[in-house]
Amino acid sequence: MLWLVFLTFPCVGASIPMTPDPRPGRELAGIIGGCPVSAWRFPWQVSLRFYSRRSQRWEHICGGSLIHPQWVLTTAHCVDPQELEACTFRVQVGQLRLYEDDRLTKVAQIIRHPKYNESLSAPGGGDIALLRLEAPVALSERVHPVSLPEASLRVSQGKTCWVTGWGDIRIGEPLPQPFHLQEVEVKVRSDRYCQQAYRHTFRPEHAGQLTKGDVLCAGSQNRGPCLGDSGGPLVCKWNCTWVQVGVVSWGNVCGHCALPGIYTRVMSYVSWIHHYVPQFPAPSPVGSS
Asked: Does domain 1-278 have CATH number 2.40.10.120?
């Protein structure tokens, strides 16, 4: 459970995923350069929880998005290792401030994408997972699924999108109380830009991942996700409709090195998602941009 962060050297080194994790032996991954979310702007935002014996509470470890009243979309590395059962996780919906009036929902099933390789973690690809909730959540102004894109949707370079989460606000600096959900505007980058930006940072086994077409690049220095934001949504707006195009997967050390964040490209996996998740609501037509 991570968001890939470059830890070996300050702008050069191995990558790892981003997620705050109470379990020992795990790296953590937050929103850098963001602002508190106003009102209920992103009612699909989910907090994924894991029980901490140290604090004796269900602690936030990752983000996620509600894509159906009974289904959450997140990253596969957020629910590592695969031996963990669904009952070890909970989700919180409809919350702007973490731990404020928690009403947690049990997870009944975890479905990781079969391409995901636990030993390679997020940079190996297929970093996407579905969580089936024990029961559908009640929808309201504060709780509502986000729209998913058509597989054919193309997101152009320079498109303005938003990423949200409760992760660190600077390297090594957790989001302070009252843990208010943060949002930050990011620009989508071209695959070529991303490949150039990361060409000196990859481990050999990760070097080809950015050419596989199932990831999306977005962000810039001091703007983007950090530790604790893994699994959260990257959303863009077309014709007044919010559409989730990415899932926070991995990247640099919290915007420190002017490297964009790497997101699992939802368009590449939308047919796999709908193999398990009914469409809700019926998708509105959106044009590419």
From this structure: yes
